[in-house]
Amino acid sequence: MSTPLTAPPPPPLVETGFASLVLGAAAAAAPWLGGFGMHAAGVAGAMFAAVAVLVALGLQRYRLARFGTANAVTLARAAAVSALAGIAVAAPAVEPAAGLASCGLALLALDGIDGWVARRGGTASPFGARFDMETDALLMLVLAVLVWRIGHAGPWVLTAGLLRYGFVLAGRAWPTLARPLPPSERRRRICGVAIALLSVAAAPLPPAAVSFLCAIAVGSLIYSFAVDGIWLVRYAPALPAAACRS
Fold first, then answer.
1. How many CB atoms lie within 10 A of CB 166?
2. For the chain, does the N or the C end have fewer beta carbons within 10 angstroms?
3. CATH number of the domain bearing residue 140
């Protein structure tokens, strides 16, 4: 008995290209439909276009056979983060709102779904893990900018979003800091808590309460990056590259 022929899966660039067109349009339309203006919509669209290009480059680098459902969920999160970035950066005026806080918390809740889908479907990959991490880092930065634009905290709150990128730049100057880190539950939990606190800080709350929440977010992230940096300086040079897996 001959086995039925099945069509091969579409190349990942085709999959992500179609999804990017749809999600990019949604990302650009969201700020405009929300009344934040065309400038915010333009920034959202440009942000997501940059994300789509980086995703395409990542697919080629990691030679992924399929884009997959889990990465599609992460791409949808990136589109929502891009829409939020348009509001945070280019809206004429940003006021504290429960809707903005809810958006950040919803994106945090979705963070666990893409990993669950990947593990359940057996499609977990280094690309997917990196894509998820970079989306979280971008969300952190966007939320920090949003809280600053609202006026709930001074420029110091931007530290929460810039720490990760500063750490990467430090690794370019000091290669020891660019070595892979072992998995860390502490790192994951602190990142989630910081995103949650910055999301809540966008809600209409008393200024003292918001400053307190932002200070906890920034302080916990500084602690987490300091722990990782000290570990790399003390232990990474003495280990082979394969002994440290991110």
1. 12
2. N
3. 1.20.120
Residue 5 lies in a domain: no
- pTM of the entire predicted model: 0.88
User: The domain containing residue 104 runs over which residues?
Assistant: 12-243
Instruction: Work out how many domains the chain is built from and give that number.
Output: 1
**Tens digits of residue pLDDT in 128-167:** 989 999 999 999 999 999 999 998 899 999 999 999 999 9
- Tell me how far CA of residue 208 lies from CA of 75, 201, 204, in angstroms: 35, 11, 12
- In angstroms, the first-to-last Cα distance of the chain is 46
Q: Is 115 left (phi over 0), alpha (psi -120 to 50) or beta?
A: alpha
Structure tokens at 235: 């232990």
Token pair of 55 as six digits: 């995703």
Residue 202 phi, psi dihedral angles, 5° rounding: -85, -5
DSSP codes, the chain: -PPPP-PPPPPHHHHHHHHHHHHHHHHHHHHHHTTS-HHHHHHHHHHHHHHHHHHHHHHHHHT-S--HHHHHHHHHHHHHHHHHHHHHHH-S-----HHHHHHHHHHHHHHHHHHHHHHHHT---HHHHHHHHHHHHHHHHHHHHHHHHHTSS-GGGGHHHHHHHHHHHHHHHSGGGGSPPPP-HHHHHHHHHHHHHHHHTTSS--HHHHHHHHHHHHHHHHHHHHHHHHHHHHHGGGS-GGG---
What are 172-213's pLDDT values in tens digits? 999 999 888 888 999 999 999 999 999 999 999 998 999 999
Q: Establish if 134 belongs to a structural domain.
A: yes
**CA 75, CA 181: separation in Å to the nearest integer?**
25
